[in-house]
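In response to a reviewer's request, we include the raw inputs and outputs for one of the modeled complexes. The two entities were modeled together in a single run.
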Amino acid sequence: MEKIPILRMGPFLLVTIQVDLYDRLALNLESDLVQMVNKTEAKGVLIDISAVSIVDSFMGRIIGNIAGMSKILDAETVVVGMQPAVAITLIELGLPLKGVHTALDVEKGMELLRKKIDLEEEPTEEDDIIAD
Amino acid sequence: MEKIPILRMGPFLLVTIQVDLYDRLALNLESDLVQMVNKTEAKGVLIDISAVSIVDSFMGRIIGNIAGMSKILDAETVVVGMQPAVAITLIELGLPLKGVHTALDVEKGMELLRKKIDLEEEPTEEDDIIAD
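The model returned the following structure tokens for the whole complex.
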């Protein structure tokens, strides 16, 4: 299968990564996601990587790219379900996933996105979630 | 990767099938799902098969099994995102997915599940969604 499905959940898009991201699949995912964000006017993108046990610099870069592209289209990206070993590897590889927000699971990720949207709508309130 | 992640979304569980279900993976998914339904007291299971372009009798049976097991644990199963070609194949194979509800996408599937839960809570109302 050459496509990773993107699920629409209200104002958010959900992507579950279950397979190794090789070149073409990653590029397809990037372009599909950007088009979906544009088409659905999504306010947030959730990337579930709970099935990912091995992470390399390529995947780190893809996630960073997606976050950057979504940000330009006014959608925040949250990576959810990261396994502890993956977090260790990312830091050891020197890939701290800058600009990407993280949450323990999809529910917490959605909560974070909802809070961020609310904060954007009320810019007077102090933003204490983003710390980058 | 040997596990298909199961995502919790409020009272529902969401599974996205992106890879070919071979023996062990399918059995793992069945047991993981049943345990998750039990642990989270989920009222519904959504199986997204939008990435599945080829379906065979094995996958048909697995989906039927999951629906049966979930039903015993008081959770409804909805299959979402089926490609038209897959629907054609299922009927031509003689696998009409009995006991499994379907919806066009995750959002419509959730709506269907919510309606079904409401209907269960108000058993006086006539159930016009299930037609089997």
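As requested, we also summarize the result in words. The longest helix of chain B spans residues 23-40. Chain B has a mean pLDDT of 86.
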